[in-house]
Amino acid sequence: MKSHKDKLxxxxxxxxxxxxxxxxxxxxxxxxxxxxxxxxxxxxxxxxGALYTTLDRLEAKGFLRSRIGESTEERGxxxxxxxxxxxxxxxxxxxxxxxxxxxxxxxxxxI
Amino acid sequence: MNKDKKNLxxxxxxxxxxxxxxxxxxxxxxxxxxxxxxxxxxxxxRRVAAIKAATRHGADRLKKVELDYxxxxxxxxxxxxxxxxxxxxxxxxxxxxxxxxxxxxxxTHKEFGLLKAKINYCVQVLRSIWPIVGGIITKLVIxxxxxxxxx
Lengths: 111, 151
Prior knowledge:
- The complex is a heterodimer of chains A (111) and B (151).
- Chain A has 111 residues and is α+β, with helices and mostly antiparallel strands.
- Chain A contains four helices and three strands, in the order αβααββα.
- Chain A has helices at 13-24, 31-42, 48-61, 87-103; strands at residues 29-30, 64-71, 79-85.
- In chain A, strands 1-3-2 form a three-stranded antiparallel β-sheet.
- In chain A, helix 1 crosses helix 2.
- The longest helix of chain A is centred in the C-terminal third of the chain and has 17 residues, at 87-103.
- The chains are: A alpha+beta (111), B mainly alpha (151).
């Protein structure tokens, strides 16, 4: 029988970028912050639709949890939705990065 | 007497020839002047059309600039784009997505002006349509497959 570790789901590129962007933002970020982080670090402009579809998928897989945050005037009084990476999300991301490191002959400890 | 008559006839004939020559000359000059006037009229028309086009272009540009710097213009995202995204997005993410788009709209407005903020908002909406629709379709397909497997 396969262990839980072996059954870890493969992550897509955008999923990895989003998880890393949230972790970089003290593991608590909302849509605009995630988009900005991805744009600043790797110069990729993710559309809001693609971002939230991926965030939903990650949440459904159990890699993320969300909470409703404060609303501000410049958002037209609309509440922010904050996301944080769960332990399962951390493990899956680490596993995924380790696999890439092993394939590329990097030192996985460095990652 | 006969000699006088002959001289008179010759004088008449010479005058007639001279007049005829002058008439031909004048007709040629008239034709030349008409052609010149036609050319000048065509050139004037072309110039007037060019000036009108330049004025229209200038007015359009001025309108755009005024829109960008008009303090009285309503600073709000384009309503149609807002409606499209409102209809498409699932209810659980509606507040967050609309809020994020609006926050980005005001940030762009501060940096680049109203026109660019509106264009950016529309581009964001257009780029978001397929991922959202694709996500909904995927969810529907997965749930129907699960239902089929269960039955």
